Amino acid sequence: MSEKPLWRPDSGALRPDFWFDRRLDDFSTEEWEALCDGCGQCCLVKLIDEDDERLYITDVACRGYDCANGGCAVYERRKSVVPECIVLTPETVRESPHLFPPTCAYIRIGQGQNLPEWHPLRHAGDRGPMQAAGVTIAGKVASETDVADSELEDRIRPWFSDLP
Ligand code: SF4
Ligand code: SF4
């Protein structure tokens, strides 16, 4: 079971469409957390070519990811379990946009765009449209705990370019 709630419909603090026409720096902590759709794509193991520094995405997820149900299984203690986990901040998004898919809410808002039509926040927390759009990695990836480092190159996938 994932420890991270993907959206908290009981939160009265979130206004409908609270993200609309706002900048990355404008959100409260609760709003910021709610923007993540939990797709997990930023939790995929990435490889960098030493020659040209090109980034490759694998279909292997971080050891903290709940590969069956989706979401980070160690969210509240992720930095102690996975020290290399990048904690999302407006600065992280601005400095390393290549680590996130173009569908990611933080990337979209940083570019002045609306959330994708299937985003759970646009469906009262329902993740069905998002799952139907094929955005989540849940059920499609292996955990890095089950994959040897020597196998990673064979698991490179065009994830980001395949998205709706
Ligand atoms: S890519 Fe963006 S929306 Fe998807 S899990 Fe990461 S931060 Fe959340
Ligand atoms: S520890 Fe970080 S990279 Fe790993 S699954 Fe959790 S949020 Fe994703």
The gross shape turns out to be globular
Q: Please report which band the strand proportion falls in: under 5%, 5-15%, 15-25%, 25-35%, 35-45% or over 45%.
A: 5-15%
Task: Give a count of the beta strands, DSSP E runs of length 2 or more.
Answer: 3
Q: Which ranges are low-confidence, i.e. pLDDT below 50, for 5 or more consecutive residues?
A: 1-10
Overall tally of structural domains: 1
Order of helices and strands: HEEHHHHEH
Q: Report the total helices.
A: 6
Bound molecules: iron/sulfur cluster
Gist of the model:
The chain has 164 residues and is α+β, with helices and mostly antiparallel strands. It has six helices and three strands, in the order H-E-E-H-H-H-H-E-H.
Describe the structure.
The chain is α+β, with helices and mostly antiparallel strands and 164 residues long. It has one domain. It is 20% helix and 9% strand. The chain starts with 28 loop residues before the first helix and ends with a helix. Residues 36-42, 88, 100-101, 104-106 line the site of one iron/sulfur cluster.
Q: Main traits of this protein?
A:
164 residues, alpha+beta, 3-stranded mixed beta sheet, 20% helix, binds iron/sulfur cluster
Topology, pairings included?
Elements: H1 29-35, E1 44-48, E2 55-61, H2 78-81, H3 90-95, H4 105-110, H5 128-132, E3 142-143, H6 159-162
Parallel strand pairs: 2-3
Antiparallel strand pairs: 1-2
